[in-house]
Design brief:
Chain lengths: 389, 389, 389, 389
C-alpha cells in the first residue's frame, strides 16, 4: 500500500454526493433557529426564490426535508391516481427504480425497453403517445441525466413528442444528477414536475429534495387520488407564502442551500454549465486516449456531469477497488445490468480543472495497477483540452 | 429597544429544535463521503446500533433522511391497510395532526376527545378496547409527550389497557419531544412502533427521523396494504444489515447523530432523564413563584422537556414577542386551540442550570415588560431548586 | 454533583478570553490562503482599516501574530532606549507585570504605589511629571482597564496631567481588557501607543495583538535604541501599505478579526459601550443585593467589562471551585496580592442580558453552596436593572 | 479566462502555509476555554508531550503564540549575549533574513557565502570552527530546509564539523519548512535549539512557533545577556510543568495542534517522511520530463517538502500568474536573488498522490500557456513514479 490513503483530501468522484464546498459546510454549521420565527421566514423566502433560476422556472419549487427518492414519490403521488398509466423509458438503473416505485404505489407502467447506452427515445415516445388516442397515459416519466450510465436524455424532444401527438399527459423529469450541472429549463421545455436532490450539482450534503411544479401539475394535484400527506404540495405551498413550512424543515440544510445558490449565482449558470461540458470533454478525451470506450453511444447524449467507462468484459470493480485503496478516490460502481461492466467518474459540482487532472491521473494509475492495458497518453489528451482557453 | 438583541447567543427555548451542541455542528460539517463505501458502512453500523439504547430497544430502528412528520407516515403506512380503524387521543395539537394524517392516508380514526391539559386516558382506552371485541381497532396511536401542552402520557398504562382487554392492536407511540429527554422504554413497555425525530432530545438539527419496530409490527408490515415506497421498512432493513441504505442517506446528519449519541452515552441516560426532571421542576417552581399556572393538570403527567404556561385570558403571544425583541429568546407559541393562551418553555436537549436561569430570568423580565402581573420571587424559587445537590 | 457539568454550554465568564461568537469561529475555520497573494492583500487592507475605529484612531494600527504580552513588549521596544525612565502606576497585577517587563528589557521604572482598588492617580502623575523638569521620564505607562481588579483608569486625566506639566513623555496605554468594551479614544486622548489583544472585547480567540501608534511614537521609534526585530514597527508598516506582512501572519485569526469587526460595526460602537455599562451596572446591583462589596472604590472607575467581588477574609477560590464544579462556569481568580480575596466576573465581549442573568444566578447559587452568607434578593436586583429599556 | 478560478478547491501549493486538513480546522473552531482551568491544563500537558516525537526529542519544547520569525528571535535571545559571534551560511533567502535578525539584535555574524543552490557546507563549517581556537563563535545557525530554494542542509554533517573541531558553539537549526515533512532528530543530531512553525508540515494555520531546547542551551540561557521577556524560556518552562503558560496562549491553535499531532501519529512519522520523499521524487521526475531543471544541484540535498524550478532567464513570475489566474493554484515565488528566476512547488503537509497529480498537471498546463517550451511527457513521468507501490 502506498501510504497515501491516510493523508490529504479524499477524492469523492462518484456522481454524487459531490464534494461539498467548505463554505457550504460552514454555513450549514450555524446554530439551528426557530422555524416559526421571523429570521426563519426571511431565510425561507430567500431560498424559495433563489432556487428557481437553477430550475429555469418562475413557478413554485417545493423543498422537502428528504432525499431525492422522496421527491420521486412526491411527483407521482401529487399528480396521479391509483391505476393511472404512466410511460417510462429504460435508460438505466435509476429509470428502472423510479418506474418500480410507480408500480409499488399502484400505477400501471409502460416501460419502453432500452440498452442503457441511450437516452429516452423521442421517436418511440411519439409513436406510443400518438397511439394513445384515449389518453390513458397520464404522465411521461423521464430521467434527464441517467446517473447509472452518463447518458443525458433530450427532454425538449420528448416535449416535442407530446406536443406532436397533442397529448395531455404530464411530463415528469428527474434531474437529480443534472440540476445545477447541465443546462435545464423547466418552464421553456414545458416540464410539469421536475424532481431534484441536493447532493449533486447543488453541492450540498444529501437531505433536501425538490419538486418544481407547473400550473398544469398543480391543477392535476387537485384531483390526484393517490394518498399523500408528508409529500402533499398544498399545505407546503400555503405555508411557503410566508417563508414557512407545515412541518419542521431541515433548517441547517437550508443554510447550506442559501450559500450554494449564492455560489452558483456568483459563477453564473451559463458558466457553470460550460464548465461541466468542458470537464466532460476532457474526461472523454482521456478515456479515448487510454484506448477505452465511453458507455454513452450518441454524442448528443453525452453527460456533462459524469462519464461511465465501458468494460464489457468486466473488471470495473477491481479497478475501483485499486483506486480507492491506492489513491484514496471513490468512483461510481456499475449498477443493475452494468455491475462490474462500467465504472463512473463524477465530474460535477464543486470542481475544477486541477481536481479533474488529479482524478484522471488517479484513474490512469489505477487502470495500470489493476492490469488493464491502457495507453498512458490518456492524461495528456485531457491536459490538452484543459489548456484551451 | 435594549440593544441586546444583536449580541451574544440567541436563547432557543422552543420545545425543539433545540440548541445543537457546537461539537455536533462541527461533526456535521465534516466532508460528505461515498454512501456506498466501506467508511460509510462502518458509520451506518455504528449509529444503527448506538441509537437503540435511547429507544430502550434491542430491536431494529429505521433512520429516515426526513423530518419527524415523515416518521409518523412511515409508522402508519408500514403497518396498516386502507380502511383500518385506529384509536387516537386528543391530547393536543400534534395528536390532532397525526390522526388527521391517518385520515388523509385512508384510515378510519376514532379520536377520544380531550381537554389538552391531560394525557391519553388509560381508563378510556381500556373501555374502548374492551368494547372492541371484533378487534376492528388495528392500532392505538399515542403521543408520549405532547409538545403543544407539556403533558406526558402514561404509555405503560396504555399498554396495560391493551393487555387488560387482551387486544391485539398495535401500539404506535410518538416520542418526538420526549426521546432522549424523558425516560422511555420501547421494549419494556411493549410498544410496536416508536416514532422520533432528530431535533429535540437528540440535540441534532432537523432532518432525521426514526421508527423503532417490534417484531409484531414487522409481521404486520408484511400484509399492510397502504401503498408505500420511500417509507417502506423492508428494503431499508435489508440494506441496514451491512450498514447501508437503499437510497442516499443524510450522511452529514448521521455524523451529527454519532456525535450526539456519544454525548448522551457519556452523560448516561439516567442522568439525562434526571437532569430534565430537575429542570422541569425548577421551571414549575418559577411559574408558581410568579403566581402563574402550568397548563398540565395532573402531576403524574408533567413533562420533563417543556412547560406550557397557562394564560386563559390570552396575551401569551405578546409576552413572547416582547421576550424575542428585548431578550433575544425564542419561546413556543400556543398552537391550535391554545393560540395566545399559552407560551411554552423548552428546557430539553443540550441544556444546563445556568442556561435555565437565563431562560427563566428572561421570561420573568418579559412578563413584567409585557405588563403581566407577576411576583418577582419566581426566579428565586427556581434558584432554590437548582441549589440543591 | 449535579450532573449539569457535562451538558449545555460552558459559561466562560472570566474577563477574557471571552465567549467567541459561533460565526467568528466559523469564519476562522476557512482554509488558509497564500499570504503573498491578491486575496490576502484584500483581506489585509480591509482589516487594517476596519480595526481603526475600535481604537478611535485614524493613525496606523500594527497587528501582531502574538498574544497581548507581545504587544506590551512591542510598545516598549519600539519607543524606548536602554536605561530610559518610565513612569507606571500600581493599579493591580497586570500593571505590575508590565513594569516588570520594562525592567527586564533594561528600562528604569518609577512605579507609583497603589492599593489595587483605584486607577492610576492623575494627581500623583501630575506631581511627578511637574517635578521631572529634566524630562527624564520618557514614557508614562497606564493600564486602562486593570483586568485583575475591575478598575478603569481615567486616561484623559493622565493626558491632562502630561499636558499640565507640559511634559514630552509618551503615553502608552494597555487596553487589553477594555478595547471593544469600554469607550476608548486613541487620537482624542492623545495616546501614543495603545496596546490591545484579540481575546476580550474583540471576541476572538487569543493569538493576535495590536499597537495603535501616534505620529509622535513613530518618530520616537526612529531613535529608540532597544533591540528589536520581530516587534519592529517599520517593516510591518511598510508591508502593510499593500495589505501584506513582513513574516507569515496568523491568517485564520485575521478572518476571525474581519468577522468580529463586522459584528461590532453592525451593533455600533456606542451601543457596544452602552451594553457593557448596562451589564456592569446590573452586576453591581446583584453584588450589593447579595450584601457583598465591589473591589473598585471610586464609582468613576467602575469597569464596564468585569467586576471583582471583594472577600477580604478570603474564600474566593472556594466559591469559584464550587461554581465551576456545580454550574460549569469559569470565573476569574484573584491574582497577585488579591489571591483568594476576590473573584472576578467577566461581562464583556459577545454577551447579552440572559447570559448575564445565568451568570449572576450561578454566582448566587455558588455563594450559597459555598456557605457564604448572601441575601438571595441579589438576582432580582439585577433583573430590575435589566428590565429597564 | 477559463471560468475555473471561481469553483472547486484552491490548490495552495506554496511551501507553506500548507493545506490545513478539514478536521484540524474544525478542531480549531471549538470554543475557547479558560486558560487557567483544569481542562486547559490537560490540553497543555498533552500537546507539550505529543509534540516531542516530531522534533525527535525527549527534551522540552516551548510553544509560542507567535509565528516562526518569533521563534527565530527566541532562539537567539535566550542563548546569546550582545556582541556574541555567530556563524551562519548563505543558503538562501531565509538564511539571509535570520542572520540579518541576529545583526539587528546586536550579534556579530559571520556569514559563509553560498550560491543558493547548495546547503550549508560542512567542510567550510569545519574549517572555520577549527580556526576559531578562541571559541569566539558562540552559535552556528543552520536552516535545515531552505524554503526559498528547496535545498536541505545536512545537519548531521554540521554537527560532525563541530565535533571534529571540538567546538563548544551551540547548534541552532531552523526547521520551519522541514519539521513534520523531512526526517529530523533534535537529540540524535545534537542540536541545541530547533526552531519551527505551525503552518508547514504540522498542517496548522500560522500562529504557533516552537523552540526545542537542549540541556546545553538551557544552561546557556542562564547567562545569556540579550534582553528578553516575551520570548524568555524560563517562565514558560516553569508554567508548562502543570500544562499552563505565563501569558495567554493561542488556545484554539493548540486544539489544532492536538488534532494535527494525532494525524501525524496515526500515519506514522516514518510513513510521513517516506510520503514526502516519494512526492518530491515524482515532482523532480516531472520537472525533468518537461526538460526543465531543479534548482538544487546536489542530490543529497534535494528537499522533500518543496521543489524550486530553475528558470535562469526569468519568466517564473509570469508562469505563476498564469497558473493562479487560469488554474486557481498558488505557487511560491522566487525570493531575494531568485526573483522571477524560480517558482516553487510545495508538496508538503496534508497532501496525497492525486493532489500532486493535479498540481503537476496545473504546472504543465501553465507552462504551456505561458509560452515556456516544455515536453508534455512531464506529467506521465510523474505518474510512472506514483504508480509504483
Amino acid at each position: 500500500m502506498s501510504g497515501t490513503t491516510t493523508t490529504g483530501r479524499h477524492f469523492l468522484q462518484i456522481p454524487g454526493p459531490t464534494n461539498v464546498p467548505d463554505r457550504v459546510l460552514r454555513a450549514m454549521a450555524a446554530p439551528t433557529i426557530d422555524h416559526r420565527g421571523p429570521e426563519f421566514a426571511a431565510l425561507g423566502l430567500e431560498v424559495l426564490q433563489a432556487v428557481k433560476p437553477v430550475f429555469g422556472t418562475a413557478q413554485p419549487v417545493v423543498i422537502y426535508p428528504a432525499s431525492g427518492t422522496g421527491a420521486w414519490e412526491a411527483a407521482l403521488t401529487n399528480t396521479l391516481s391509483p391505476g393511472d398509466t404512466v410511460l417510462a423509458f429504460e435508460t438505466g438503473h435509476f429509470a428502472t427504480l423510479w418506474q418500480e416505485m410507480a408500480t409499488r404505489l399502484g400505477l400501471r407502467v409502460e416501460f419502453v425497453p432500452g440498452d442503457w447506452r441511450h437516452g429516452a427515445d423521442p421517436q418511440a415516445a411519439q409513436e406510443r403517445l400518438a397511439a394513445d388516442t384515449a389518453h390513458e397515459i397520464k404522465a411521461v416519466m423521464v430521467v434527464h441525466n441517467e446517473t447509472s450510465t452518463g447518458v443525458t436524455s433530450r427532454v425538449p424532444e420528448i416535449r416535442a413528442a407530446l406536443d406532436a401527438a397533442d397529448h395531455p399527459a404530464l411530463l415528469l423529469v428527474d434531474t437529480i444528477s443534472s440540476l445545477g450541472s447541465i443546462d435545464y429549463r423547466h418552464d421553456e421545455w414545458g416540464v410539469d414536475v421536475t424532481v431534484a436532490g441536493s447532493q449533486k450539482g447543488l453541492m450540498l450534503p444529501p437531505g433536501l429534495s425538490f419538486n418544481a411544479i407547473s400550473e398544469k401539475a398543480l391543477q392535476a394535484s387537485k384531483t390526484a387520488g393517490l394518498p399523500r400527506s408528508f409529500w402533499d404540495w398544498q399545505p407546503i405551498l400555503a405555508a411557503n407564502e410566508r417563508g414557512f413550512f407545515p412541518y419542521t424543515p431541515a433548517t441547517n440544510l437550508l443554510y447550506a442551500l442559501r450559500e450554494a445558490l449564492q455560489m452558483l449565482d456568483d459563477e453564473g449558470l451559463a458558466n457553470v454549465y460550460a464548465r461541466h461540458t468542458r470537464h466532460a470533454e476532457a474526461t472523454r478525451a482521456a478515456v479515448r486516449g487510454w484506448g477505452l470506450e465511453v458507455l454513452a453511444l450518441d454524442e448528443r447524449e453525452y453527460s456533462g456531469s459524469l462519464t461511465a467507462i465501458w468494460m464489457p468484459d468486466g473488471g470495473a470493480d477491481a479497478v475501483r477497488e485499486v483506486i480507492l485503496r491506492e489513491y484514496d478516490m471513490s468512483l461510481g460502481a456499475g449498477l443493475g445490468k452494468l455491475v462490474d461492466k462500467v465504472f463512473r467518474i463524477g465530474h460535477l459540482g464543486h470542481f475544477n480543472d486541477l481536481t479533474l487532472v488529479g482524478t484522471l491521473g488517479g484513474v490512469q494509475m489505477g487502470l495500470v495497477r489493476a492490469g488493464v492495458k491502457v495507453d498512458p497518453n490518456g492524461i495528456q489528451a485531457a491536459l490538452e483540452r484543459l489548456q484551451q482557453a
